[in-house]
Amino acid sequence: MVIPVKWFATGGLSPALLIALGWTVGRGQPVLVATVSRQAIVQSIVATGRVNSVLRVDLGAEVAGTVAEVYVREGQRVRAGDLLVRLSDAEARASLQQARSALAEARVRQAQQVGVSAPVAWQAASQAQATYVAAGRDHQRVHELVAQGFYPRQKLDDAQRALTIARSAWLATLVQAEANQPQGVEPVLLAARIDQAQAALQMAQARLARLALRSPADALVLSRQVEPGSMAQPGRVLLSLAGAQGLRLDTSVDEKYLHLLTLGMRAQAVADAFPAQRFAAQLSYVAPAVDPQRGAVDVRLAVPEPPAFLRPDMTVSIELLGGTRASALVLPAGAVRDADRAAPWVLQIAGGRARRVDVKLGLHGVGAVEITEGLREGDMVIPPTEKAVAGDRVRPAPAAAHARGFEVPSFIR
Predict the structure, then answer these.
(1) What is the pLDDT of residue 399?
(2) Tell me, what DSSP letter sits at residue 145?
(3) Can you tell me the distance from the alpha carbon of 188 to that of 401, in angstroms, rounded to the nearest whole number?
(4) Is 143 strand, coil or helix?
(5) Would you call 6 exposed, middle or buried from its count of C-beta atoms within 10 A (0-12, 13-18, 19+)?
(6) In Å, what is the CA distance from 377 to each residue of 37, 323, 371, 380, 399?
(7) CB 85 within 8 A of CB 239
């Protein structure tokens, strides 16, 4: 728009000011712009996570009881098998001693059976057999004498009775002797009693062991929630341990990036407490399912060489690194509209007007995206924060235009 000179004279304004006003109106409204540039870009996924131990254990008692001793403090390093907490165990120790005594008694009975009962049973069987043989001879002799008339018939009945009793006694002792043989009833019964006593002893030992909490591995004590004299209940955490095997990073990634995740993917991380010290990590686990409530998938990253300052439960910022492009057309991510949808687009400045342009995106970096189609190097794009729509007359804001080398008259700078 050009304002006539005649109007200058009648309007009362200076000609220089009116010329500046006409130039500004003719160029359109000033807007901030983002410029397409050629530079390197790295595909990355940014997430926030926490440091965790590869082995994380919450120790609690299996049975209810009174805590007698606590042997560790927070920050203390322990070895596998170290005693950490002991519950009151007087009753359990008494039961253990009783079980040991029962086992010892069963073994003595077994030794007695082998060394005494079995030989005595055989001796008794031998004596009963000798008595039975003697009774048989007496019966035969009495039978002959009765037949010859020397003895009355009653004498033969007495001899028969004695023979029957001797035979019964011999058979009874023979059965008893056979029962005391290695494969007989008595040894088997005593062996069963020993097994029962051993099982009772193991049960008593297990009950006693449940009252002593030991470290499952070399670890660091993270927290202690118990003191001597307090009650321990099943399910209540008494100590939290972090294994000494190494550290990992736990985080979650939006499911829309799932296709970019591959095991072994490189990453960089920085702890919020030490923002200037970055360290390397590597994707080691991707959850097999997506959390429907969050729309995210849980992932874990290994830390091959954890720095000395890294501790469990620290908050970390993680950048997963995917593909790289040494020379790509790059635009700030905030300048692309509907970037997460199927048809992203930008509002480009072309011929002094805002024009909608569909674009195709490539790699996504931190705060930047690759433009593969739709724009060229040097093209200027209006971000969504500006109040401009397609068709508006626009011009780059002076600061941005000057930065890109535009000639801006001095009177509007």
Answers:
(1) 54
(2) H
(3) 103
(4) helix
(5) exposed
(6) 5, 21, 10, 9, 20
(7) yes
Residue type present at position 400? A
Quote the percentage of the chain above a pLDDT of 70.
90
Distance CA 162, CA 393 (A): 139
Element (H, E) at 70: strand 65-70
Query: What is the Cα–Cα distance from 19 to 8, expressed in whole angstroms?
Result: 9
Question: Of 186-200, 361-375, 392-406, which range is least confident?
Answer: 392-406
Tokens, residue 346: 């930008």
Cα separation, 388 vs 150, in Å, equals: 150
Say if residues 289 and 333 touch (Cβ distance below 8 Å).
Answer: no
Q: How many residues does the chain have?
A: 413
pLDDT above 60: residue 322: yes
What's the CA gap between 166 and 133, in Å, rounded? 8
Looking at the DSSP bridge assignments, the partners of residue 248 are 52, 302
Residue pair 17/409 in contact (Cβ under 8 Å)? The answer is no
- Residues 80/217, Cβ–Cβ less than 8 Å: yes
CA separation for the pair 217, 243 (Å, rounded): 7
Contact 160, 139 (CB under 8 A): yes
Amino acid sitting at position 58: D
Among 406, 398, 260, 383, residue whose Cα is nearest residue 332: 383
**Of 320, 316, 275, nearest to 50 (Cα)?**
316
The helix-helix angle for 118-148 and 153-179 (nearest 10°) equals: 160
Under 8 Å between Cβ of 372 and 362: yes
Query: In degrees, to the nearest 5, what angle opens at C-alpha 158 toward C-alphas 156 and 159?
Result: 65
Q: Is the pTM of this model over 0.70?
A: no
Strands annotated E in 186-274: 212-214, 219-224, 231-232, 237-243, 247-254, 266-271
Gap between the Cα atoms of 387 and 382, Å rounded:
9
Mean pLDDT for the stretch of residues 137-144: 88
DSSP letter assigned to residue 116: I
Side by side, which strands form the sheet with 237-243? 56-60, 237-243, 219-224, 77-78
Distance between CA atoms of residues 127 and 339, nearest Å: 107
370 by DSSP, 3-state: which?
strand
How far apart, in whole angstroms, are the C-alpha atoms of residue 406 and residue 37?
16
Q: Is the dihedral of CA 221, 224, 229, 233 positive or negative?
A: negative
What are the start-end ranges of the E strands in 71-218? 77-78, 83-87, 212-214
